[in-house]
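User: Could you go from structure to sequence for me? I need the amino acid at each position, not a summary. Structure tokens:
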């Protein structure tokens, strides 16, 4: 066995089980490759251990998906954002965001970055807090409505609507300095595949740009949008007007395979692509796009999560969370865990976290 292969295997084996951005990382794969503790052998004993409120003032604030990194769970909470002990749920620190709602959160480089909106105006803000103690590091207005954010390679990228136009802007993670801006583009699923962003243009085309400086990598006259990426950061999974799910080479734009499955969102691990479709969760072969298996759910399928050899699929409102083996689709016995199709679960550090937008619950 070559030394390079050994190093690659060791890197995977020592990968921390964290969840630093919505969808796990900048690629929004919804796959945690570092999870080894919550598996088919242990998930059956998981029970609710703690719960917290995720927002206050329902006329303004909304609950967001949690994150897990640096030994903490980060969540929106009443009046701002907070860091919590993953074992006990006890508050480690709270950062106030008066009359603000949280749109997105991401953890990178020792900072918790939040994209927030003002409850009483159309203003949006980027704010960075130190993950260790919640101290505010910097804050900038991003101008007008902002709907999405991703952090990769030391750059915070935001989709904004200054003066109700379209713009995609990159800011330096360490201090919020603007690095680049593109006008007439939007992400419609802002994610990074190997440091590349797939953007839609005003002329119904597709432009892939570098997250580092916004320079164009390739363009095509196709109305594509990214619904996911692979864990290696080599491909985009895309949807588009009048087309089904397709796999596209992130470096060149070459279509690797396509299917007739409509897919507003997907989950992707190294071997599979999971597609929620009405009341069904469909598993495709990541190499070919061919259907491997499908699981019927009790209600409308939400965003699934792959971790520890298991696929967690939320459905409907308060329907039990579906848990199946990723290889076969066969159910795995668990306690009855309520879920909602509007919020993906999070699996990190041997723990399962679910939210309904009002409360965050931890199971282990």
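Assistant: Here is the amino acid at each position, in order:
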């Amino acid at each position: 066995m070559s030394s390079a292969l050994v190093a690659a295997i060791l890197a995977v084996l020592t990968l921390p089980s964290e969840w630093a951005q919505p969808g796990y990382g900048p690629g929004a794969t919804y796959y945690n490759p570092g999870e080894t503790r919550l598996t088919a052998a242990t998930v059956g004993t998981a029970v609710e251990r703690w719960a917290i409120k995720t927002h206050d003032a329902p006329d303004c604030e909304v609950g967001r998906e949690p994150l897990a990194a640096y030994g903490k769970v980060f969540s929106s909470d009443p009046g701002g954002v907070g860091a919590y002990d993953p074992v006990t749920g006890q508050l480690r620190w709270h950062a106030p965001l008066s009359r603000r709602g949280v749109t997105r959160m991401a953890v990178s480089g020792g900072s918790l970055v939040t994209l927030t909106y003002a409850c009483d105006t159309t203003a949006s803000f980027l704010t960075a807090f130190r993950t260790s103690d919640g101290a505010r590091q910097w804050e900038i207005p991003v101008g007008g409505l902002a709907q999405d954010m991703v952090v990769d390679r030391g750059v915070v990228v935001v989709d904004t609507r200054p003066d109700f136009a379209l713009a995609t802007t990159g800011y330096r993670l360490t201090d919020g300095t603007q690095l680049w801006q593109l006008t007439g583009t939007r992400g419609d699923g802002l994610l990074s595949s190997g440091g590349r962003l797939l953007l839609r243009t005003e002329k119904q085309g597709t432009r892939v740009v570098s997250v580092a400086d916004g320079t164009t990598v390739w363009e095509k006259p196709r109305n594509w949008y990214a619904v996911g990426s692979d864990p290696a950061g080599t491909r985009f999974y895309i949807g588009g007007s009048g087309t089904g799910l397709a796999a596209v080479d992130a470096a060149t734009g070459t279509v690797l395979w396509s299917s007739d499955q409509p897919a507003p969102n997907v989950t992707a691990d190294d071997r599979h692509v999971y597609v929620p479709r009405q009341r069904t969760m469909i598993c495709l072969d990541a190499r070919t796009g061919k259907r491997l298996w499908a699981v019927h759910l009790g209600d409308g399928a939400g965003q699934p999560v792959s971790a520890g050899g298991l696929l967690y699929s939320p459905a409907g409102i308060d329907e039990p969370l579906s848990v199946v083996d990723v290889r076969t689709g066969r159910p795995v016995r668990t306690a009855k865990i309520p879920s909602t199709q509007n919020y993906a679960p999070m699996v990190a550090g041997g723990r399962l976290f679910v939210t309904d937008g009002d409360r965050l619950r931890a199971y282990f």
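One structural detail worth keeping in mind: The chain has a mean pLDDT of 92.
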